[in-house]
Amino acid sequence: xxxxxxxxxxxxxxxxxxxxxxxxxxxxxxxxxxxxxxxxxxxxxxxxxxxxxxxxxxxxxxxxxxxxxxxxxxxxxxxxxxxxxxxxxxxxxxxxxxxxxxxxxxxxxxxxxxxxxxxxxxxxxxxxxxxxxxxxxxxxxxxxxxxxxxxxxxxxxxxxxxxxxxxxxxxxxxxxxxxxxxxxxxxxxxxxxxxxxxxxxxxxxxxxxxxxxxxxxxxxxxxxxxxxxxxxxxxxxxxxxxxxxx
Length: 246
Ligand code: GTP
Prior knowledge:
Blueprint: E1 15-20, H1 35-49, E2 54-59, H2 67-72, H3 77-101, E3 106-110, E4 119-120, H4 123-131, E5 135-139, H5 149-159, E6 164-169, E7 190-192, H6 193-198, H7 206-215, E8 219-223, H8 229-234, E9 241-244
Helix pairs in contact: 1-3, 5-7
This protein binds guanosine-5'-triphosphate (GTP).
């Protein structure tokens, strides 16, 4: 069913890209894809979609294979990155399955052609899918080695003219130190792109943050772990850190 963005009740954004790390799909397991966790995220996305927000997704691949780790163990870097990109396609297909299990329409578009299992990335087609209320899952990062899925997410957010990039993480924002090890760590409500880059806050890699700065798309860092967290972020409730130009 088409998303009626004009009635996007109380939503701060009309179109967003949600970035989830591959590790998040592991849930409490050590490796790979935990379907109950995928279904939990699918529920979150379905709830958020009810606000009338158009949503696209980028999922990392670190739960299956990390290009950098492959390169560190002696593999040629471009080869290793190709394997990492294929891992993101597996995750995209798992999330597609989870979303469609609960009746949410989706399309997967890949930056590396894999026509038998998903669509190729076609920007204008992706926009039409979103206008029709489908969740578009972008797989295979930028389709190039030497980039990360954060950069892929930033690129797609810019190409889709998203109003925000939402980064779902383990914690509910960006902290002054690691909140798991340092009890004095405090969460920033807001930061500028420049502060993130200058202080090397490692929210996302620098090229992703710079692209968001150049295209003036805010990055919202939040925790996906609480029920309704995505809906809360979209309506300006709950904890998060908003990174923008001011
Ligand atoms: P509309 O034109 O808006 O109806 O979009 P649509 O995506 O439903 O149109 P289409 O008839 O092109 O696609 C029907 C199904 O085929 C969808 O599930 C698409 O994801 C899938 N599909 C389209 N192109 C490709 C492709 O190149 N490869 C694969 N594997 N599936 C594709």
